[in-house]
Amino acid sequence: MSAVSSPFPSTVVGGDIGSIIVGCKLQVLHGTPSEYRKAEVLSIRPTPVPDDQNRHEYYVHYSDYNKRLDEWVTPERLNLLGEIEYPKAKKPKSALSGLEKESTGKASEPGTPGASSRGTKNNRKSQLSKAATASKSGGDAGSPAPGTPGTPGANKRKASAMDESGEKVPSIQVNGNEEDDDDASSVANGDTPVGAGGNMDENGVFSKEQEIEKLRTSGSMTQNPHEVARVKNLNLIQIGKHEVETWYFSPYPIEYAYLPILYICEFCLSYFPGVKQLSRHRVKCTLQHPPGNEIYRKDDISFFEIDGRKQKVYCRNLCLLSKLFLDHKTLYYDVDPFLFYVMTMRDEDGAHFIGYFSKEKESSEQYNVACILTMPQYQRMGFGRLLIAFSYELSKVEKRLGSPEKPLSDLGLLSYRAFWAETIVSLLVDQQKTGIELSIDDIANRTAFQPTDVLHTLQNLNALKYYHGQYVIVLSDTVIKNNERAMKKKKREVDPKALNWKPIHFTATQLRFL
After folding, report:
1. Taking CA atoms, which of 23, 252, 482, 500 is between 20 and 30 Å from 318?
2. 3 state DSSP class of 82
3. Regarding predicted confidence, which is higher, 483 or 148?
4. Where primarily located (predicted)?
């Protein structure tokens, strides 16, 4: 739901609940601690059980706070007596200006800015039209998606689109109870999509409003993932013994959006609306660990390697789950090009999911991680560092230098910077005792870090100094003391001897994912 122009002045003091629209900014009561914070209303929806007091819920983003704090609130948490800032009215585009632009575009010669702009727009429309037409052929793993008015509910959907720059936009597919997604994109398979409004234009392209509304109801992002992803659709999940607050939007089916808790099987990652359905599933579900090869076991920690092509349902469920806690990744329905490495903690009940990372089977950029996640209930316990260390241990076996795919999330960036700094400083301190000098390439080869990551880490540590016409690495006393303090903390380490793994070499046929 995009911001609407308001009939009210831009800022007023006091108002009624009926005057609150998308785009309004006002004070909202935040739960912890209980205080009023300025927030923007991003979306409005009817309550699951409307009554005289609460007919709608309001999705708000707190200004100057992290997006993961966004939440649905009831009307009593809105301060209607204070200052309310309404969105500015947008100037309507006149028909005359549109004709002028069209005539300007036609008059432009090839190679002129007008012609280039018009060509890009036409190309984008034709690509979208082709995508809508091609989607009639269907895909290999369709699922019932929630229907919209005038649309059959159980259609396989597949669409690819172009973004405003003309590049392909990743999309998401929803697969009934067996949903998908990676840290990548979203494509949906099947019949020609129908917008929430019902119709496309003559070029087969949705209007922005139709597209956004369709995405909200189907859980599939095909054109502009940024707007729909602003609104979190689930507040709480239960996985194993843990109830976890979600952070971001994930394209679970729309019928689950009103659930107070979504229940997830911690072994196969299937999701259910209630405890009863989960209990019935657990009677039938025989999994007690991820469905892949166990390639590492040390103490109570195990790693499993899973091929996205062989275990599509599990990997799609994994990606759906991870999207609840990852903001910077778009979504891939197609998990075939990825390998997934799942970390678990074993006890008498089975191997419990802690986190994972994925990597492309063939990366032209030499990325050793595409997406990485530690579940919130296991964060600040050293498991994120263990995941990172394990990814580089695999790179050492492959005899390659690796780096995580960019951009990293805020927490991911902090974790990687800390790991790089600790590893590099420890290596330099140990080498100082031997009297052997190391270059940036030497450090990269010993750690399997990319030279650019080594360079940036040394720059962040302020360890590069210009001396006698060349750059040298100099560690300050503060850096060394901080490293000694960090090394004294008890940490889980990857034991290379416990790794039983050989790199998988894929043929050209196996890397053909279409």
Report:
1. 500
2. coil
3. 483
4. nucleus
CB neighbour list of residue 336: distance below 8 Å, 6 or more residues apart: 308, 309, 312, 513
Within 10 angstroms of residue 311's Cβ, the number of other Cβ atoms is 18
Range of the domain at 40: 11-85
At residue 51 the predicted structure's pLDDT band, cuts being 50, 70 and 90, is low
Does a structural domain hold residue 395?
no
Catalytic residue list contains 83:
no
Dist CA 278 CA 280 (whole Å)? 5
Same domain, 479 and 454: yes
Q: Give the CATH number of the domain where residue 436 resides.
A: 1.10.10.10
Q: Which helix (H) or strand (E) holds 195?
A: none
* Overall average pLDDT of the 179-185 stretch: 35
**Segment holding 214, helix H or strand E:** helix 208-218
Question: What total number of domains does the chain contain?
Answer: 3
Question: Which tokens go with 433?
Answer: 């005792």
Please indicate, yes or no, if residue 40 is contained in any of the structural domains. Answer: yes
What's the distance, Cα to Cα, between the start and end of the chain in Å?
A: 34
Q: What's at 199, amino acid-wise?
A: N
User: Contact 290/306 with Cβ under 8 angstroms?
Assistant: yes
Question: Tens of pLDDT along 390-434?
Answer: 999 999 999 999 999 988 888 889 999 999 999 999 999 998 888
Q: Are strands 293-298 and 71-73 parallel, antiparallel or unpaired?
A: unpaired
418 strand-pairing partners: none
Place of tokens 């006393």: 477
Look-up: residue for tokens 């870090």? 449
C-beta of residue 207 within 8 angstroms of C-beta of residue 346: no
357 Rama class: left (phi>0) / alpha (psi -120 to 50) / beta:
beta
